[in-house]
Amino acid sequence: MINSIRAVRRAKGLTLEEVGQRCDPPTTAQTIGRLETGTRTLSLGWMNRIAKALGVEAAELVQLPQDTQLTITAHLGADGAQAPTRVEQALTARPGEDMVAVRVTSSIGDYRAGDEIWCRRTESDWTRALNRDILVPRPAGRFFFARLLNVDGEKLHLLPLGTGQRQQVVSNPPWAAVAVRLIRTL
């Protein structure tokens, strides 16, 4: 059985040792590593223990062949939206083909650190996204995440999420992605 223990553990920022200590009863980092890689059989009992330690449902640790993984496209923090330094997967991915994800790394606007924002890509008709938060690609692998205030031809008028920031105008972006789902761990 293919599992996604490693992806969930990494997305939550936990080490093998931390997951092992959170298990009830505690276990070793080596055991967790063997279960992640499939060198040790992942029984239903182990799956339930690890899911509880990670704070997720056991079903989220099973990866079916037809499951789609949603890749994190940008990290959002006080300094804006940045491209990730390594490939990351969203926690529970059952997205459509036109979806991208943003992980919030520090609280900004209505978003908290640890949130994931799922966005639906669109290449035209941005008026349907008015007064919604959108992700817009910028040159050199950068991104801009802000509230869409107005569409003037091919110009998007955007208001950054931070307090006291001024409206920005982005001309003729190749695509934009409208925020449609917020994934927040409580």
From TrEMBL:
Entries under Pfam families matching the protein: HTH_31 (PF13560)
InterPro entries, per database record: Cro/C1-type_HTH (IPR001387), Lambda_DNA-bd_dom_sf (IPR010982)
Domain HTH cro/C1-type: 5-61
Protein name: HTH cro/C1-type domain-containing protein
Organism of provenance: Sphingopyxis soli
Lineage of producing organism: Bacteria, Pseudomonadati, Pseudomonadota, Alphaproteobacteria, Sphingomonadales
